[in-house]
Write a structure and sequence with these properties.
Length: 619
């Protein structure tokens, strides 16, 4: 059962992984999705980082602000409380009338005047303050007490007996105190009050009056205070939702609390024991029952050590930071949504031309040369589309040109096949004529026919490149035939180093130069013409020159010849076909560094054929 469960979990995880990978491929297979994913991730990282950083900064600042403001408030309020308590102590001392009051207390049971002194003394103290609920004067030796209270609209003084007062804790504390005083809290239980104090009382102050001579306790003054004055003092401490405030005596007895259950939890947890006896400070307390964490700020008075304690929930401190964080998330989400829309529009604006360009490229790859991409704007995509269109147009032109060349090549092959029989037939016929001339002992005629046959055979041998020795041998036969026409007017000199006799040259190239010299020099004048054929070489080039001493070529004629070198093959003219063909052959065989150059003036014309030396396709 366990094995099957593991197998099912593995299969499920693999299936989930496959689905996630498939979704990821679908998302990232398009450029627009990649751009949206990229910019969305950047926005999320930026907004999230700024929100977290600002939240932490505001959170820290909120804590520091709460500590600083609460500490200052507690310090000021505690000073006012100490002044208030000091006023209680001053009120309880008879001061100038101390002896009169002590004598009245000693004689009050047998002297009416003494009782009136006590009652007037109690009334005067009661009238002096608005926060008093009652004043008791307890005569220790006789267990009698006087009490002044406000009943309806009158201030009344009554007398009574209570034998249980000496048993009460506050009485014992006052008697044992070196300062002859004790403070009684009414927070929590009121079972040990001793007197019937009004329910509005929040604390009592007890003062022992002793004989100056014997230091024997004669009476105890008890003042019961309501919360009116304390509430007014405590108003200076702002309390937010969930805030609490506690007033503790130097002995740790609570005198003022907003929530007694919270006080009990703090007391039981021991956090109140960590509060110092002087100065201000703070501690952190975790309320396990309420699942809350509190920042407990306190201030202990320097005079008597009364402690003001304010527990503040961290949740309330962080409320501003939390609100700011939530607003940041909301604004960030809104900003993210708007950004995604803008990014989508921008990405589509970028990828839509690319998609159209890709579609046209697919059409182009299938052989459709009508594919053109729309060009909009002046950005890189428009530049790419423009050049794609130019590439398609150029490719179509090249293919058409190649097609025309193929047609020309086929026509040339057909014509060559048609004409192939004629040169062989002519060559055989010339050989027969030469044989007949020899039989009739016409040796000059036989030599001319034989030279013509050898020239014809050399012309149709099919080789593109021959060595210079073979080309010069052909030139010798060609000159012999031309001398039969022009006689002694044609003179030829060959200046060719023996080391260059094996120089590879295009077949019939030198003949073309010599033929051009005869045509443009010898045929134009009636005087003798000298044609000099020479060759020289350097480390990079070999130069073959044919120079004549004819009348030269006119400037217009020379410009026409040179311009014909740059014409397209289909636009060639028959008058300059020989030189143009030779220049074209040199470019095709040896590259752009090779070519034909013409120098002419009134003293003659020199044609130079330059052939690079080196390279696989070069000489």
């Amino acid at each position: 059962m366990c094995t099957l469960s593991k197998g099912a979990v593995i299969m499920m995880s693999e299936r989930v992984g496959t689905i996630l990978r498939s979704m990821w491929r679908r998302i990232t297979q398009k450029l627009v999705n990649k751009l949206i994913l990229l910019f969305t991730s950047v926005i999320i990282l930026v907004v999230g980082s700024l929100t977290i950083i600002s939240y932490q900064m505001i959170e820290k600042e909120s804590v520091n602000h709460s500590i600083a403001s609460t500490t200052n408030n507690l310090l000021l309020v505690n000073q006012n409380l100490e002044d208030y308590l000091e006023g209680m102590q001053q009120l309880a001392l008879p001061q100038l009338r101390y002896n009169d009051i002590m004598n009245a207390i000693a004689n009050e049971n047998r002297d009416y005047a003494s009782r009136m002194v006590i009652e007037n003394y109690l009334r005067s103290m009661f009238y002096s303050r608005n926060d008093l609920e009652a004043i008791y004067l307890y005569v220790a030796d006789r267990h009698q007490y006087y009490v002044v209270t406000r009943e309806t609209y009158n201030i009344t003084v009554r007398k009574g007996i209570n034998t249980d007062i000496p048993k009460l804790p506050w009485y014992k504390e006052a008697m044992a105190s070196t300062t002859n005083e004790s403070f009684q809290s009414f927070v929590g239980s009121r079972s040990d009050m001793g007197y019937v104090a009004p329910k509005a009382s929040f604390m009592a102050y007890h003062r022992v009056l002793r004989s100056i001579a014997s230091r024997h306790p004669q009476a105890v003054l008890s003042f019961y205070y309501n919360t009116s004055a304390v509430d007014e003092i405590m108003q200076n401490i702002p309390l937010g939702k969930g805030d609490q405030l506690m007033l503790m005596s130097p002995k740790g007895v609570p005198f003022y609390v907003n929530s007694f259950p919270l006080y009990e939890r703090m007391r039981d947890s021991g956090v109140l024991a960590q509060i110092g006896k002087g100065g201000s400070g703070r501690v952190t307390w975790s309320d396990s029952s309420g699942n809350q964490e509190y920042l407990v700020v306190y201030d202990a008075g320097e005079k008597d050590g009364w402690q003001l304690i304010k527990p503040i929930p961290y949740r309330q401190i962080y409320e501003a930071a939390t609100t700011t964080r939530n607003w940041s998330y909301a604004i960030g989400a809104l900003f993210l949504g708007v950004s995604i829309i803008l990014v989508t529009l921008t990405s589509n604006a970028i990828t839509r031309p690319l998609h159209k360009l890709s579609t046209q490229m697919k059409r182009f790859s299938t052989g459709d040369f009508g594919a053109t991409a729309p060009v909009k704007g002046h950005d890189e995509i428009a530049y790419l589309s423009l050049h794609f269109n130019e590439m398609v147009q150029r490719t179509e032109e090249l293919i058409n040109e190649r097609y025309r060349m193929k047609l020309v090549e086929k026509n040339a092959i057909l014509k060559a096949l048609e004409a192939e029989i004629n040169p062989h037939f002519l060559y055989n016929a010339l050989q027969a004529i030469s044989t007949q001339a020899l039989k009739r002992e016409m040796f000059d005629m036989a030599d001319m026919v034989d030279a013509l046959a050898q020239t014809l055979r050399y012309s149709i041998n099919g080789k593109d490149i021959v060595v210079a020795r073979e080309e010069l041998k052909h030139i010798e036969r060609y000159i012999g035939l031309q001398k039969a026409r022009f006689g002694a007017r044609l003179r030829v000199e060959v200046v060719w180093e023996e080391t260059l006799m094996e120089l590879p040259v295009p077949r019939l190239s030198v003949q073309t130069l010599v033929e051009n010299a005869i045509k443009h020099a010898l045929e134009k004048v009636s005087s003798d013409i000298l044609i000099v054929i020479s060759a020289e070489s350097s480390s990079t080039n070999a130069t073959i020159a044919v120079r004549d001493n004819g009348p030269g070529i006119s400037e217009d004629k020379l410009r026409m010849v040179l311009d014909s070198f740059h014409e397209k093959w289909e636009e060639r003219e028959s008058e300059h076909i020989g030189l143009k063909n030779l220049n074209t052959r040199l470019k095709l065989l040896y590259g752009d560094q090779a070519g034909l150059f013409i120098l002419t003036d009134e003293t003659g014309t020199e044609m130079r054929m330059q052939i690079p030396r080196g390279g696989s396709s070069h000489v």
